[in-house]
Structures are given as structure tokens and as C-alpha cells.
Amino acid sequence: MNDLTIVGKRVERVDVRAKVTGGALYAADVQMAGMLYGKIVRCYDYAHARVIKLDLSKAAKCKGVVRVLGPNDVTKKEYNASVLDMMVSADMRGVLGDIDDQNIFTDHVKHYGDAIAAVIATSEEAAERAAEKIIVTCEELPVYMTAEASKHPDAMQFRPEKPGNLAFQLPEMAFPNNTYAWGEVDDSFKEADIIVEDVFYVSKQKQCQMEPGAYIALYDDQERLNCWTSTQMPKLVQKKLANLFELPMTRVRINATVIGGGFGARLGMVLEPETCALAMAVPGRPVKVLSTREEDWVTSPSRHPGKYWMKMGFKKDGTPVACDAKFENYKGAYYVDASGTAFTTGAWLGGMYKFESLRYRGESYYTNQSICGAFRGYGNPQTNFVMEQLVDRACDKLGMDPIAWRKKWHKTVGDDGWCMGVPYNSCALDECLDRAAEAIGWTEKREKYKNQTGVKRRGIGVAVMNHTSGAMPMLLEHTVCDVLLHQDATATINLACSDMGQGSHTTLRQVAAESLGFPYEDVYIATGNTDAAGFDIGAHASRTLYVGGGAVKQACEDVKRQLFERAALELDEDVNNLYMEDKIIHVKGASNKSISVLTIADQGVNNFMNPENGELIGQPGQIKGYASFFPPHNAPPFGASIAEVEVDMETGEVTVIELVNAHDVGRAIHPGIVEGQLDGGAQQGLGMALTEETYYDDKGICLNNSFTDYKMLGPSDMPKMTNILVENSDPTGPFGAKGVGEAGIVPPVGATANAIFNAIGIQILEAPITPEKILKALEKKGR
Amino acid sequence: MTSRVMRDFDLLLPESVAEVLDLLATHKNKAAILAGGTDLLVALKFNYSVDNVISLALVPGLNGLSFDPVQGLTIGAKVTIADILKSKVVKEHYPALWQAAKVFATPQLRNTATVLGNILRASPAGDCSLALYACGGSLTLKSKRGSRQVNLDDFWISYGLTARRDDELAMALQVPAPVRGQKSAFRRMTRTKEDLSKINAAVSLQMEGDVCMSARVAMGCVGPTLLRLPKIEKMMKGSAVTDGLLQKISDQVAAEISPIDDKRSSAEYRNKVAGVLVKRVIALALNGKGNDQ
Ligand SMILES: Cc1cc2nc3c(=O)[nH]c(=O)nc-3n(C[C@H](O)[C@H](O)[C@H](O)COP(=O)(O)OP(=O)(O)OC[C@H]3O[C@@H](n4cnc5c(N)ncnc54)[C@H](O)[C@@H]3O)c2cc1C
């Protein structure tokens, strides 16, 4: 595909000027005349309690207060902030057992930071000061912070319809024996010469997006509910709000503001329900709600933490015979995303290696932690931490090179993908492994780091992953796009896809320009208004370029088709005998016969009638392209990372020296943006492996819901890093592209853990792998 | 839980030391001094409130950072961590302080945070404070009633509490001039590079050849205030610093500290690595290498 002119180029990002100059308008920056401020009163004294008395009277009398609202002053309709239930068919929704179990304000506090009441006032300060005057009297209830605690027979039940506090397990109807499985695992294990098995813990990692939650809502004079939010999925949030407030979709409008990072934290609703409820209480006045970082931390979802047991069996020659696994996650106080991650965590496991048989169980238990939900990778980093460590333990026992084993046994084209029944259609993982190994000097270093004795010991480790581009067929993958051809032959692309910093508005524009055959400058991506944009299931699951790009391509091709049809009529030629170059449509082999796109576009709008006789000229009407696009596949991206670390045997400290990431990206529509995604992913993957964890005291009080004590790696902690883009065109992706938004976070997790294993000969089973844990393990082993 | 809007206070902007002292005499414990504000503003957004904030922003004469071979180093109240990092004399004569400044927070913070603010905060983790504790020094505290000197050894009373009286402004810190053979170093351990210390150590040693004539050994995050380790100092005094001695020191350190479990680390871990850290900071002071042996 050498004839591509815009795809594959490092064009200037559409958002870069506004972001580097501070001009970008985030929700917090939006000011409106007559704007009021809402402050939500949350419970920070208990993680589990019943509110026995709520006294709003003092707050109501405070200066500047307009309204004070408790649970009885807002809709009592329950909702589910996640939008997963809207991405599956009605049948599947029933099978999954998703439930609505959240309230706008509650009198039963189920986690640290649960919302109880709110104040609306004329200034943020007045709202804050009045909120302090709300008196909440609570009766403390026992807390259940882990699955082990909440599944205890004596534990209080979170929801009557979820006995045993089991919010979700793979449903029998779709998954026999509640397992995602193939083959006969118990029999296969009998063939195994070696078995590796352990219980791991994966931590509650937080997205740490830069922008804390900020929302504005206005119930306007046409009785329409308007909400300004940096959600990742405007169309689904529009429908969710319509359902919650029992309004038709025509009366709900989402204005998507610039997103200061998402990573899953804005997947579904966060504080849109609360903000809209406040606005409904003061019709005609916009209400703004701003979260502190601490508040954002405990109200937006995190990664699913939990116990992850896994067992693998191998023959002496390395043949993987059986894999059995169970992930019991500590779901948090509400149902949100209980089903999705519990399934996909196993899907990534199933999609990786050619085990003769495999069985995975995923269970989500209610706990008094803040909710978990989507986070870049959606279960994949958890699986990577566990699966890849066990594979390396097996390689160690088998005396096999971890890269050689992976190359031999990873799934590839034709094998069942992460979703059974949907085989992989492209895979360049071998090339990823080869090039990464070469770039970091794998063979020499593996050899060199055997038998070290010093205080500082080096190690090098590898991990691989499979992921997805959109989640067809698990989700109803669908994006609508329309393209308006203006009379000056430029085009506006209208769709709902968000750009949360991942660069999608730039790459979608590249796809549009390439598909239309127009210069990059002649197209514009218009988003952010749910009145105008058609359906889309949001920016997540590495789908925006793959599915959104597919929609853009198809809608642009529709424009091109119409242009060619009109040209054919004008030139009196067969459509198939035409081609376009520099926005001029020519007849093949007849250099003097042509018509410009400008002429067609202009004629249709400005010049379609002879004013003297009323006769039509040419082809009247403005051209509009349209696509309601469903992708044919999920174009699986594959990737490998190799990490080199140095461990201090006296302090347990780990320094990551180098990281090489090689990813099968299909085609890099914008190589710089792909590299950016891999860099950012690696920062979060290394963080998950080494430092990141939200934790609680034994009463369920969150101890580190801010950057003071939740540590992400900073610029100076990052290793030397190389990203290798393996471009192996996917047959179904727009111009061959695969999704790359999530892939980057995954293999650095396992690679880092394996590098530490290589350095010290011990595997640390709990993430993050801190110096405290390493030193303890070293002492236990007697160094 | 922080608030998005700080509680009301009056921001006072005196333009001379005399005015500061007047304001302090009037408001006493109803006022807080604002130097760089990197501790104070965090507290004000959290749960601390105070009626008056007295800013040093417009007060002249507090920026001095000067060195005299006899008098030693004088650090004025408005000297920032970045000023320390830029100073060649500090780097040469007080390596411990320079090393502490080097790893201190981030560029933005270093440009704002002051050395004296670090001392006045009385945190058991303060990095520059710890380095200065090892080097030794005395603070000049001034009020309308007069001026007095308080040795750092007597300054930190308990967590967040100092010997400063309500009406006193800390004017400057004097650090003695290094004597011949004086060596110093600072090291810390953190969760990520840009973090508060989970444990830190600083030493100042007076060497004659291999023999240590006197030693000041200090540690942070192992007690309610920064601590000196007198037994270790005694072990070093008059001894040749050999690998054997370093190992003995390393084994002894845990007996002299009383760390706790907190969000940055555990008592158990701190006890385990404290000796390693002290051994390494001594090595760093002596030969510029302390990463390992
Ligand atoms: C993100 C971040 C990172 C940090 N990293 C580090 C680090 O790596 N190492 C470290 O040690 N600290 C660190 N700190 C803490 C803080 O930056 C330091 O303690 C700093 O030195 C305080 O100086 P300041 O000028 O900002 O003090 P301020 O906040 O202005 O004052 C601190 C206290 O001292 C009092 N005070 C200040 N000057 C005087 C004076 N002249 N007389 C009397 N009282 C006075 C104030 O009233 C206040 O109580 C960090 C803080 C933040 C926010």
C-alpha cells in the first residue's frame, strides 16, 4: 500500500496546540451565566454504615445556599453506572445478570466515600462550607474488604438477588459449569510431567488520569437535560441518563468536553447522575460539581484487585497440556462491571497459548471497597502478572528458553482467539519476539546473568500478550458516522468517538482524508454533541480507530461513491472508468475529460437550477455520506516486552534498566501516536508491577487516595525504552490497523516480574513487587 | 480529605523584618509564616486553619546564602532548595546538604521550598534538615523581645513541634565551617524517585587518614523526630573505618532506632535496611561511592 499519502504520516495532532498552550477547555474551565455549585457530602468515617439520622437544616440556612438535597429529594431509581449492559443484546443482558444497585444518595453507606447528600450554593466556597454543616449520624456495620470475608456464610448480604455476595460468576447458560473452558482439564493434568501452581494477588491499581472529575448540568427551558462531561462514551451516557431520569433521548444532551485522560476511569457514568440530579432540582440554572483528587479516586472505578489462582501442566518436552485458573476479584460496593472483567481476564488467558485443555472461572464478590471497573487492559494486566510468571517458572524447571518456548506455543492465525469460535486472522508475535530479543541482547544477557553473587544483581525477563480491537462478538460493536461534503469541497466528519488523549481525532482524520482522497487540511472531525452524532459505544477496548475508523472509512467511501456517480452522469461515462487525483475526477485514458469535486459540490448546493427557466442543472443536492458500521472481526494485536532490571540484594530495591516493547500493530496510522500509546502503557504497566496499589485500613478507610501515598513512576523512574512497531496489516482493520490503546500496558507487567525472577531466583506472588516484599522473600530463602 | 477551597485567612504582606516581628507579636499562635508554602499550603487545603498568614514574599534581606572559611555557611530564611543546588561552596564543603537538595522533590518544588521551611516543619523525614543535622548548625530566632540562637540538636522536640516561640521569626541558620578532613554525605530511600523519604541517613565525619576523629550520624523516618545515633558515633570516634567496622556499625543501627509502620514503609523493613543505609552513607562520605561496595 505504497500509494497512501496521509496514513502512516506523523501529522500534527489536532489537539496539541490547545493542550500545550493551556487553551484546551476542560469541563472545569467551562463558565456559564448564573452558574451554581454543587458539593456532594460523602461518608469518610466508615466504609460500611447505616445512616440513622440526616440533619440538613443547619446547612440549608447557610449563606449562599440554594438547595440542600438528601436521598428523598432526588430520584430513588436505582442504576448501574457501567454501560456494559448497553453493549450487549437484551438476551445476553439477562444471561449475564447485570443489576442496577446504585442510588444517587444513599442511607446505606457501602464504601469509603459513598454519597449521602448534597448542597447547591451560589459559590463553590459557600457549598463547601455549608456541606460541613450537614450532620450525618451513622450506625457502623461490619466491613468486608475481601472476597474471602464477604463470601463467609455469616457475612451481611449486599443484595438479596446476589446470594453469598457473589455479584457475578460466568453464567451457566453461556458457560457450562460456570467455566470458560475447552478440553478435559483434569484428565490432561494426568499427562503432565511437571506442574506449576500458585495463588497470586493483583492489586487495586488506579488510572490516575490527570483531570479529576468535573461536570456541569442544566435542566433548560425546553425541559432538556444538558450535561457537560469528559466521558469516554457520550452516546451511552446519554441513554443511561435518559433511562435514569425517565426522559426521551431527545431531551438529554451530552456535551463532551476535552478529556484529561481516561484509561477507563470515565467508562460509563461517574458523577453525571449526581450532577444531573442537582440540576433537575434547580431548573434553569447550570450546576457545576468539581471533585477533589481524593474524591475522584473513590468514586471512579479502579482495576479489579483480587486473588488469582493458577495451575499449569507441561510435558517434559514443553508441551502445554493443561491450565486451570480462578480469579476471585474484590468487586467493591456496587455491581458495575462485575461481569465484563471477570470474563475477559480469562479470555486473555485462553487466547495466549495452545494448552490442550483449559478451564477458567471468574467470580466477582461484593466488598466494601470503592468500585472497580474498566482500566486499560481490562483484566489483561492481571492475567499477564500471573500467567507469565508461571510460564517462566515452568521454563525454568524444563530448562527451556522463555522466548523459544513462547514462540513455539503461542496461538496464531487459525487458532481460536480470545473469544472461542473466532479464530485469529493475523499474528506477528514471532517477529515481535525476535526483534525485541535482538534489540536488548536477550541471549547474551540471559547467559551473563546466570550465577551472579554481588549485591546488585541483574535480570532479564520477557512477557507476551494478545489483546483485541473492539470486542466483537462479545460486544455489539457499532459506530455511526456521517460525512457532510460542503459546497467548497471540504468535509466535516460527524461522529461520537471521543479523543481522551490517545490521539483518535487525529488518526480518524487521517483515515477520513485518505479515504476521501482529500488533503488532511480539507477534513474536520466534529464530535462532542450527542444531538448530532449517531450511535457509538464509546472509546474503550482499543476500538476507536478500528471500529470508529472503519465507520469513517465507510462513510467517506459513500461520499466518494456519490461523487463518482455524479461525475459519471456529467461526463457520460461508466463509473468504473473513472479515477480521482487531487480532487479531480478523470476518465481513464482520456486526459481531457474530467470534473472537479469542487464543481460537483458547488453545483449541488449553489448552482443547481437555471433561474430563467427553473430547469435543474447537473445533480442537485448536497452530498452526505453515511455509515452504520459493524466490524467483521476484532483484529487481535499481539505484543512482547523484554525488561532488564537490577535488584539490590541488601535493600530489595528494583531499578528497571531497560524496556523493549515490540507490538504487532497492524498498521501504524500515525507512528508517533502509536509510540505514545506504548510509552504511556509501559509507564502504567511498570507501575502495576512495582509500586501502584490503593489500600485500606482494617475498617475500610482508604489510606492513599491521592498522589502523596499512591506512587506512580515519574519521568526519572522510567528506564531506557525502545518501541518496535511491527506492521503486519490486518485484513479487517482500516488500512490494516489494529487497536493499540491498551496493548502497551500489558506485557511490561509480566516482563518486569520475570526479570526480577531471573535476577533473584524468587517469584513474588503479590503485586506490586515492592522492596519490602523482595527483602522478606530473600530472607525467607536465606539469600 | 482536602477541600477545593481553603478556609478564610488574612494574608499579611509585611515589607520588613521589623513589620514581621510586629505582626508576630500581635497575632502569636493565630498566625503562620509563609515561606515557600510547600508545606503550609498543603496543610491549609487539608484540615489546618489559621487566621493570619504572614508572607515573607516582600521582606528583604532574607535571601543570603554566604560562606566564610571561619564563620561557615549562613542560610537565610528565603534561601530555596534550588539555591543550595546552584551553590558551588555548598557542593564542595557540605556535600551532604547538596546531595539532599539534589534528590529533593521536583524542580518546581525546589524553586519554591526553603531550607528553613524544611527545618521549621519539623518532619521526621526532612531531607535537607537531616543533612544539616549531621553537619550541625544553629538557628537565629528573632522576636521583638530580642534574638537568640538555638542549636539544631535542641530544636526538634517531637513530631511537628520545635523550640520556636510563637512570636519568633527564624532569620537564618549558621553551619560551622568544615575542619580539615571533614567529610559528609546524605542518602535516602523512596518508593519512587520523586517522593518523601521512607528512610534517610546523613553523616558528617572528621577524618585523619583512615581514622575517624569524630562523627555525627543522623537518620530520618525512624522516630518521631530526626534522630542522631550516639552509639554509632561513639563506635566510630577514634577508630579506623574498615570494612569490619562498617559491618559492625551496620549490625548495631537497628538497636538505636524506633521506626513505625506507616504508608511509606514498615517498621520491619526500616529496621532491616537502616544498617545498610548507614554503612553506605559512610562509604559515600569517604570515597564518593555509596551505591554498593
Ligand atoms: C510535592 C512535594 C514534595 C516534597 N518533597 C520533599 C522532599 O523530597 N524532601 C523533603 O524534605 N520535603 C519535601 N517536601 C516538603 C516541603 O517541600 C519541605 O518541607 C520544604 O522545605 C518546606 O519549605 P517551605 O519554604 O515551602 O515551607 P512553608 O510551607 O512556607 O513553611 C513550613 C513551615 O515552617 C514555618 N516557617 C517557614 N519559614 C519560617 C521562618 N523563617 N520562621 C518561622 N517559621 C517558618 C511555616 O509557618 C510552616 O509551619 C515536599 C512537599 C511537597 C508538596
Strand order in space, largest sheet of chain A: 3-5-1-13-10-11-12
Number of helices of chain B: 11
The percent range for helix content of chain B is 25-40%
- Cofactors, ions, other ligands: flavin-adenine dinucleotide
Distance between the termini of chain B: 44 Å
Please state the structural category of chain B: alpha+beta
Largest interface, with counts of residues having CB < 8 Å to the other chain, equals: A-B, 34 and 25 residues
- Mean pLDDT of chain B equals 96
Shape descriptor of chain B reads globular
Multimeric status of the protein: heterodimer
Quick take:
Chain A has 20 helices and 27 strands. Chain A is of the alpha+beta class and 783 residues long. Chain A starts with 15 loop residues before the first helix and ends with a helix.
Can you walk me through this structure?
Chain A is of the alpha+beta class and 783 residues long. Among the domains of chain A are: 1-30 and 210-261 and 266-299, 2-Layer Sandwich (Aldehyde Oxidoreductase, domain 4), CATH 3.30.365; 375-468 and 636-782, Aldehyde oxidase/xanthine dehydrogenase, molybdopterin binding domain (Aldehyde Oxidoreductase, domain 4); 478-629, 2-Layer Sandwich (Aldehyde Oxidoreductase, domain 4). Chain A contains 20 helices and 27 strands. In chain A, the strands form six sheets. Chain A has a seven-stranded mixed sheet, sandwiched between helices. In chain A, strands 7, 8, 9, 14, 15 and 16 form a six-stranded mixed sheet that branches. In chain A, a hairpin with a 5-residue loop joins strand 14 and strand 15 (320-332). With 293 residues, chain B is an alpha+beta fold. Chain B folds into three domains: 10-55, Uridine Diphospho-n-acetylenolpyruvylglucosamine Reductase, domain 2 (2-Layer Sandwich), CATH 3.30.43; 65-175, Uridine Diphospho-n-acetylenolpyruvylglucosamine Reductase, domain 3; 182-288, Enolase-like, domain 1 (2-Layer Sandwich), CATH 3.30.390.50. Chain B is 33% helix and 26% strand. Chain B contains eleven helices and 15 strands. Chain B has helices at residues 17-27, 40-45, 81-86, 88-93, 95-103, 107-112, 115-121, 127-135, 230-236, 243-252, 267-287; strands at 10-12, 31-34, 52-55, 65-68, 72-76, 138-143, 146-151, 156-158, 161-162, 169-175, 182-189, 199-208, 211-220, 227-228, 239-240. In chain B, strands 4-5-10-6-7 form a five-stranded antiparallel sheet. In chain B, strands 11, 12, 13, 14 and 15 form a five-stranded antiparallel sheet that branches. A three-stranded parallel sheet of chain B has the order 1-3-2, with helices on one face. In chain B, helix 5 runs antiparallel to helix 8 (127-135) and helix 10 (243-252) packs antiparallel against helix 11. The mean pLDDT of chain B is 96. Chain A binds chain B through residues 44, 124-125, 128, 290, 292-295, 454-456, 648, 650-653, 691, 703-704, 706, 709, 711-714, 716-717, 770-772, 775-776, 779, and chain B through 1-5, 106, 189, 191-195, 263-266, 268-269, 272-273, 276-277, 291-293. Flavin-adenine dinucleotide is lined by residues 32-40, 42, 77, 104-105, 109, 112-114, 116-118, 120-121, 126-127, 164, 169-170, 196 of chain B.
